[in-house]
Automatic annotation (TrEMBL):
One of its GO terms (molecular function) is metal ion binding. This is 3-isopropylmalate dehydratase. The lineage of its organism: Bacteria, Pseudomonadati, Myxococcota, Polyangia, Polyangiales. One of its GO terms (biological process) is tricarboxylic acid cycle. GO terms for cellular component: cytosol. Keywords: Iron, Iron-sulfur, Metal-binding. It comes from Sorangium cellulosum. The keyword Cell membrane does not apply.
Length: 488
């Protein structure tokens, strides 16, 4: 399927050569939006020609240092000039970029370029999202095209049905436990090409778009360039509920489409799992009884609207233990509104939850870090980080609900009776926090910061390389194949 998307946009539909030029449908700016815009302006761009380009301002909790960054023109800031270049701004408070883009902008059978690996979740709707450098993003904004390497595919064949108290978060952890990162690394080394995960099989079509997005979120964890699901009736229903039916396009693999390897998983055999602080995926029962100090429900990945509603139902009439801190970070403003309208938000607050803003630093643990000496349980995927940074346990929303109810880690199947969750079809879809260009509206004349000048190397230079999160085999996957990289 990724080859199918690229072939329909490439100057050479056969995708021959190490690099091919392709038309870009969307550009998603999340981590360094001002730098990408500066690169585009330097080429003479007046208006971006891409179908959709969005800049996300992920700093909700402002402090003295973040305000100073904005005043100094930090590349991470979002200036008011973006809409004048046909690039809307998703303002602080709208939610985390990945779930918001899935709800309001992502479209199946399209190609998106981004600077944020966590946007891999949009593959759940059938959109191919690839991470590129700020300079490539600038070129894509200015010209509407980019040069990319044709990828290779690994198929994830899904069969069976999940059992009660097992959800997509557990299935994603099961894939990590099966050392999918080693498969990706081997194929990437053999073919010198990026690897994309393709989900297929009879059970793939049974999953909701939200569950598909959770599974696609493992792509950066295993070193894959992206992950992709088909676009079918489930996708069409999702877009209809979002009032974006016109964005739907069918996307299915061609019969006999090649893939380098097939990894099969029976959903009926998956148990409630967690990834411990060392990065080892294991059954929840292995840590049963261990006290929990912090629970963070929500974030930008690993949880769906259905999971949030289920956790609220499981915690109804419960109270937070005295030594546990429950934080709820709704993935998007839409999810927050649904929680409020359904009464689930009231139940969570009555339990003792604190509602936190969807600041990008929540998922990186820069704010609300794990308490020292205490166990922190979270639903969101870990952020690649420097080795030695505070770590936490990743688990499903139901497992987190059990920890809140009892104060310790335990198997959510101990709740005995599964809850029945009805996800509303009428969803709030107003875009009040999306700032678009309006004719005649006065905007700031402050220009985005220029692209940083290249600094020549003088002699040997040793660079620290960010380490990825250890996978199911307990070994860290280190960027650039090592912890240190020496410049020539």
């Amino acid at each position: 399927m990724p080859q199918k998307i690229l072939a329909g946009r490439a100057t050479d539909p056969q995708l021959r050569g190490d690099l091919v030029q392709v038309k870009v449908d969307q550009v998603i700016l999340s981590r360094a939006p001002s730098r990408a815009l500066a690169e585009a302006i330097a080429t003479g761009m007046k208006k971006t020609p891409v179908e959709v380009a969005v800049a996300y301002d992920g700093t909700c909790v402002a402090d003295a240092s973040s305000l100073a960054d904005i005043d100094e023109g930090s590349p991470h800031s979002v200036s008011p000039e973006f809409p004048t270049y046909n690039i809307p701004i998703a303002r602080p408070g709208i939610g985390f970029p990945a779930p918001v883009h899935l709800e309001r902008f992502a479209a199946p059978a399209r190609l998106a370029l981004t600077d944020d690996p966590r946007l891999a979740t949009v593959g759940g709707i059938g959109m191919l999202s690839l991470v590129v450098s700020p300079s490539q993003l600038g070129q894509a904004l200015a010209t509407g095209s980019a040069w990319l390497r044709p990828p290779r595919s690994v198929q994830i064949h899904l069969s069976g049905r999940v059992r009660p108290f097992v959800c997509a978060r557990d299935v994603a952890l099961e894939l990590l436990r099966r050392n999918l990162d080693e498969v990706v690394r081997r194929i990437e080394g053999e073919h010198h090409a990026p690897v994309i995960l393709e989900f297929a099989g009879p059970s793939a079509r049974l999953l909701s778009v939200g569950d598909r997005a959770v599974l696609c979120g493992i792509a950066p964890q295993v070193g894959a360039a992206a992950a992709l699901f088909v676009s079918d009736e489930k996708t069409e229903v999702f877009l209809r509920d979002q009032r974006r039916s016109k964005a739907h396009r069918a996307l299915v693999p061609d019969p006999g489409a090649p893939c380098e390897e097939v990894v099969s998983i029976d959903l009926g055999t998956v148990d409630p799992l967690l990834m411990d602080e060392e990065g080892v995926v294991r059954p929840v029962r292995d840590l049963a009884g261990k006290p929990v100090a912090q629970v963070v429900l929500g974030g930008d990945s690993g949880v769906t609207l259905r999971d949030m509603l289920a956790a609220a139902l499981l915690l109804k009439s419960k109270r937070v233990p005295s030594r546990l801190d429950l934080l709820v970070a709704p993935p998007s403003r839409q999810v927050l509104e649904v929680l409020a309208q359904s009464g689930a938000l009231v139940d969570l607050v009555a339990t003792g939850a604190r509602i936190v803003e969807p600041d990008r630093r929540v998922v990186t643990s820069e704010i609300y870090p794990p308490p020292p000496g205490g166990l922190s349980l979270r639903t969101a995927d870990p952020e690649p980080r420097i080795a030695g940074a505070p770590s936490f346990v990743v688990a499903s929303a139901e497992t987190l609900a059990y920890a809140v109810a009892t104060g310790s880690v335990g198997d959510p199947r101990s709740f005995k009776r599964p809850v029945r969750v009805t996800v509303p079809r009428a969803l709030p879809t107003d875009d009040v926090l999306i700032l678009r260009d309006k004719k005649g509206e006065q905007v700031s004349t402050k220009k985005p910061p220029p692209a940083p000048a290249a600094v020549p190397w003088k002699g040997p230079l040793t660079l620290d390389v960010l380490a990825g999160v250890p996978k199911g085999n307990g070994r860290a996957a280190v960027g650039a194949r090592g912890r240190k990289a020496a410049a020539p």
